[in-house]
Amino acid sequence: AEYMGSDGTGLLFDRILVDAPCSGDGTLRKNPGIWDRWKPGLGVNEHLVQCRLLRRALELLQVGGRLVYSTCSLNPVENEAVAWKALTDAGANALRLVDTRALVPGLCTRPGLTRWRAMDKQGVFYDSYADVPDERGYRGYLRPSMFAAEDAARSTEELRTCLRVMPHDQNSGGFFVAVFEKTAHLPWTKSAKNGGVAKETAVDGQPPHKAVKVDCDADDADATVEEEADAEAEALPANNLQLPQWKKRRQRKTFIYKEEPFFFMTAEDTAYLQIREFYGMADSLDPTLLMFRCEGGKRRNLYYTSPQLKRLLQSNPDMKWINLGVKMFSVCEDNDYHGYRLLQEGLELAEPFVTSRRVALCREDTRLLLTHVIPFAAQLCAKCTEEWKRWSVGPVILSFLPDATAVDDERNLAVHFAGWRGGTTLRCYLKRHERDHLLRLIGDVPPEELVSAEEDRAMHFSLPYTTCDKKAAAELQDGGDEGQETTSDAEVTESAAIA
Predict the structure, then answer these.
(1) Please, which residues bridge with residue 227 across strands?
(2) C-alpha–C-alpha distance, residues 240 and 228, integer Å
(3) Candidate list 22, 72, 384, 468, residue with the active-site label
(4) DSSP code of 379?
(5) 319 and 471 in contact (C-beta within 8 Å)?
């Protein structure tokens, strides 16, 4: 990507994929429900949205970059018409289609269409926009950009470089691909002198869409702000009592989530110093790649990112980021531990840097932890029990390291997962499907049901089922590692301690 510079250069990308929303009629073979709900308007309704998406993506493409536009539709109104609209808007000197057949020699494709017709709601075909009757709103329903090009010579040369995948050619689904290469700045954007990117412009006389809602992490969403839903609303008079009802509706304001910005840690940050001491983090881990949100509040989650993404974020301070990086640590407030626990989501990145708080497991104990909700340390083998005794109550990394000599063993795979060292127990923070996956990696078969805490307690102890055990079991049912604040089982009474 090209980063924001002091000269106002916009954020541009050298590779972009536009997998546009479409009617999906190319998936009829695997999705029979489309047969029942298909109608002529499906493709027509998507056309303008597809044009806007492609137009905006081309604005964000740097000169010399490539963009792939694709749909799972066979309707030319959603495919060649959209591609030709972009080509004619940009001009011959700014954009071209690239023939990529040589890159996929094993794929059976057909060239793009150069002539096609558009269909109205009644199923009537029209060869050109001039043939569309000016009655019953047909000319508002069908647009000029939906029809084949008038410049037959150029359209034939360029549109045939598109790729059409027909289902019956190779027993597949239907698909369309067009590869664009940007050869110069688009005529409606800022000049090539500063390389800037203009705001989205109108398509076929229609105002550009504005985002009315942005998906975000509920944990990080702090407040909502008002934003105009349509640019046209600004031009309407203040006293709009005489306006039609449909114009009044366009003035309505909508709400979007306001995303908190990301902040980067420093090597002297108190939170990181606590993490480094507790987990024995290696000096090779760069703490300045850890991020958090809510600068002045509680840092519930810490995210880890790459130097490239850090540079991208810092170079574009005005850009709104919904998600960035990998969630690695989450705050944990327990009776016996206050700090951050490792999350399974970021464990693969963190594990090479952790030198402390590790428990090595044998194959039998790995299976025990993955098939029991809250197994007791008394159920572990002697060697694993000694590993367990080394650490105080709190988060740990549980590792199964197979025999290094068994190189031909298909089960010879090392696995690591996040866990909790309790007062008398050792449990893992994994969802059910994650447990099943790890069991298969070590060559075991997942059970139909996990062994509950009640069964373990009845087998090994005569103590009643405690409230703490119920909370831990409830966390597993609610999603395991999804919980942000965890509860240890250190409340189990000392009478249940390991002999």
Answers:
(1) 254
(2) 16
(3) 72
(4) G
(5) no
Question: How is residue 329 written in tokens?
Answer: 């640590």
Listed residue (318, 313, 289, 319) closest to 303, CA to CA: 289
Cβ within 8 Å of residue 102, ≥6 positions away:
none
- pLDDT (tens digit, 9 = 90+) per residue, 467-488? 444 455 555 455 544 443 343 4
Tell me the CB-side half-sphere exposure of residue 150, using CA atoms within 13 A: 6
- Residue 291: what are its φ and ψ, rounded to 5°? -120, 160
Are 142 and 133 in contact, with CB atoms under 8 Å apart?
no
**Known active-site residue 72:** yes
Distance CA 95, CA 86 (A): 8
Query: Tell me, what's the pLDDT at 119?
Result: 87
The whole-angstrom separation of Cα 250 and Cα 232 is 8
How far apart are the C-alpha atoms of 140 and 131, rounded to whole Å?
13
- Three-state SS for 376? strand
- CB count within 10 Å of CB 453 equals 24
| Partners of residue 327 on adjacent β-strands | 303
Q: Name the pLDDT band for 136 (thresholds 50, 70, 90).
A: low
Burial level of 418, CB count in 10 A (0-12/13-18/19+)? buried
What is the pTM (predicted TM-score) of this model?
0.59
Q: Amino acid identity, residue 26?
A: G
Residues 62-89 have pLDDT tens digits of 999 999 999 999 999 999 999 999 999 9
Residues in contact with 213: Cβ distance below 8 Å, sequence separation at least 6, in sequence order = 254, 255, 256, 257
Q: How far apart (Å, rounded) are the C-alpha atoms in residues 51 and 57?
A: 10
Backbone angles phi, psi at 33, to 5 degrees: -65, -20
Going by C-beta distance under 8 Å and a sequence separation of 6 or more, which residues neighbour residue 271? 265, 292, 299, 302, 340
Q: Tokens in use for 222?
A: 């702090």
- Enter the tokens of residue 287: 């703490």
